[in-house]
Amino acid sequence: MTATETVEIRERLLEAALTHVPFDGWTETTFDAAIAEAGVDEALARALFPRGAVDLALAYHARGDRTMLHRLTAADLSDMRFRDRIAAAVRFRLEAEPDREVVRRGVTLFALPQYAPDGARAIWNTVDAIWAALGDPSEDVNWYTKRATLSAVYSSTLLYWLGDESDNHQATWEFLDRRIDNVMQFEQIKAKVRENPALKPFLALPERLLAGIRKPSNPRDDLPGSLRTR
């Protein structure tokens, strides 16, 4: 089987599943129905998605990331402030979701303790893709703090969006702007603390320790970074 055929079968299974997710969630019931409707051999389907509906849900999330990146790459954001580019990227990601109920079912799935690490990893991959697309040059601990901060912004905005009934989700975009403003205010406070002569002696040791943290040279799903020893 070629790579193209594998992708085509994966997409068939995912599309078949999406009609069932709003009613049955990302469950084995949905996975079994998708196999039957897509006309795919069960052994092959299990080979492509070993954990069944859980892996289907992750594939759906990854597809949303690709849609967001395609739109982000095509958009001209050169005249925007950097914080507005971040807001646009988060908005593009949410607008890549055609059915909020499918997303809601995914949130429910990844809230379960056994799947929470998968959900956290999926969000991390989303924000990492955003920062990479926007040309983040970070090589040190900032690589992690930027992604951790944006993960919190994205997660809170996603939850707000799920319950937003305003026209064109305007309330969500205003909520997103407020969250990014909060982050910018925090960054300004950090900068003032670093510039304060009275506090510099107390920051010397933490900054020296943090200076040894580098962004991952060979990214792994379970180990997102490295510590440089001297």
The number of helices is 11
* Beta-strand proportion: under 5%
Report the major sheet.
2 strands, antiparallel
Mean pLDDT: 88
Number of strands: 2
Principal-axes geometry comes out as: globular
Provide the succession of SSEs.
Answer: HHHHHHHHHHHEE
- CATH C-level of one domain: Mainly Alpha
SS class = mainly alpha
Alpha-carbon Rg, integer = 20 Å
Which regions have little confidence, pLDDT < 50, spanning 5+ residues? 225-230
Q: Which range best describes the helical content: under 10%, 10-25%, 25-40%, 40-55%, 55-70% or over 70%?
A: over 70%
Distance between the termini: 48 Å
CATH architecture of one domain: Orthogonal Bundle
* CATH topology (fold) name of one domain: Tetracycline Repressor, domain 2
Provide an overview of this structure.
This is Ubiquinone biosynthesis protein COQ9. One of its GO terms (biological process) is ubiquinone biosynthetic process. Pathway: Cofactor biosynthesis; ubiquinone biosynthesis. The chain is mainly alpha-helical and 230 residues long. It has helices spanning 3-18, 21-24, 28-38, 42-48, 53-74, 82-95, 100-110, 116-133, 142-162, 170-195, 200-210; strands spanning 213-214, 226-227. It has a domain at 51-198: Tetracycline Repressor, domain 2. 70% of the residues lie in helices and 2% in strands. Strands 1-2 form a two-stranded antiparallel ribbon.
